[in-house]
Amino acid sequence: MTKIIVCGIAGKMGSRIADLVRQTPGLQLSGATEAPGSFAVGTTLPEGHLVVDDLAKCIERGDVVIDFTSPQSSLRHAETAAQSNKAVVIGTTGFSVEERQRLLPVLGKIPSVFSSNMSIGMNVLFKIAAETAALLGEEYDVEIVEYHHRQKKDAPSGSAISLAEAVAEAMERDLEKVARYQRYGQIGPRKEKEIGIQSIRGGDIVGDHTVLFAGTGERLELTHRAENRDNFAHGAVLAAKWLAGKPAGIYTMADVLGFRP
Predict the structure, then answer these.
(1) Are 66 and 2 in contact (CB under 8 A)?
(2) Which CATH class is domain 2-118+229-256?
């Protein structure tokens, strides 16, 4: 039995992850955290454990920590997990360059899955977008458009960036040099090798991502639409179950799904 601790259990993702942990054979919910001051702190889970405001207070009860909170909280939780030699699954996005530089060495010390998107379908899109880019080649312009709800704090989404990275690698381009995040005014013709990444925010859109390959006289579009958050939660639980017992290192959903050679 793999024991799971869910960080941010009162949130939309955390609560759904907890439900799926309870429904998954071989997994047991053994602890949970919430931010200090949250109404959930001090309440009791059906399993009999108190929701605490510090992962260190329950870390010894778990084997794998699942975290979909915020960059600052996820970094702190990863450090706590590393100190106790516990595995961790992180689905948080929006890390700054500095935060990633602090996070990655910590994750490398323990078994960890760190991915911008835990959805199985989205990870298939990462793979086929790269393969499509390699097949179509330089004659097709690439645009990535992502849609999310009005409350999302970071832009572009972590998934859009991952898509751009996958396409850029397949086309042997340096994304830092060719990415175009906005267009306004007299910008002139599209630059050679440019990869556009555009963000839309509104309503309660869970998450849509489209990769557009525009050629002469035709275009090809690859789209993933998330209808609810269950696909992310399901992927996170799958990752936690897969991660148990793995050696230290940073894995992605591509590893969990067997996409890597």
Answers:
(1) no
(2) alpha beta
148 is catalytic: yes
Q: Tell me the torsion sign for CA atoms 70, 76, 80, 86.
A: positive
Model pTM?
A: 0.85
Cα-atom radius of gyration of the chain, to the nearest Å?
19
Catalytic pick among 148, 209, 224, 241 = 148
Q: Give, for all 261 residues of the chain, the pLDDT tens digit.
A: 999 999 999 998 999 999 999 999 999 999 999 999 999 999 999 999 999 999 999 999 999 999 999 999 999 999 999 999 999 999 998 899 999 999 999 999 999 999 989 999 999 999 999 999 999 999 999 999 999 999 998 899 999 999 999 999 999 999 999 999 999 999 999 999 999 999 999 999 999 999 999 999 999 999 999 998 899 999 999 999 999 999 999 999 999 999 876
Q: Which residues of the chain are in CATH 3.40.50.720 domains?
A: 2-118+229-256
d(CA 166, CA 148): 21
Q: What are phi and psi of 248, to 5 degrees?
A: -60, 145
Q: Which of 3, 109, 152, 246 is catalytic?
A: 152
Outline which parts of the chain fall under CATH 3.30.360.10: 120-226
- Report the CATH superfamily, name and number, of domain 120-226: Dihydrodipicolinate Reductase; domain 2 (3.30.360.10)
